Amino acid sequence: MKLILKERVENLGEPGDIVTVKDGYARNYLLPRGLAFEASPANIRRLEQEKAQAEERARKEYLEAKRRAAKLEDLVLTFHARAGEDGKLYGSVTAADVADRANEQGLDFQVDRKQVILAEPIKALGIFKVPVRLHPQVEVSLEVRVERLAE
What we know:
The protein is of the alpha+beta class. It has 3 helices and 8 strands. About 35% of the residues lie in helices and about 30% in strands. A hairpin with a 2-residue loop joins strand 7 (about 125-135) and strand 8.
């Protein structure tokens, strides 16, 4: 029996795969649990349409991420913080701080703190390159300057 998988099935396939299985496995396991549906010509056409729509959506998301990356590329974010004599900050600059400061720059989109990739918060004065992942295939580095607060 030919089926189209709705979900990943161990040792069988991924969602959207067309698989051939024994009738009993299909009737007693896959179909009752909603893991697959019958691979009729109409369902196969619908699956192909959904794949085409998903590819188009992914392409648009990629192009939008590239557009956003171009806007972020030349952005320089400056933070003023209190620091000790040795240049260590009394606080820190976190991913949320970087995202908030980027959003204050008048961009036509929002940068989420989860997109800012900081292994650990910045705790020293200096210039840092902070990566921002806008899409699995699009990453841009922001220049973050941490300067001593004039007291």
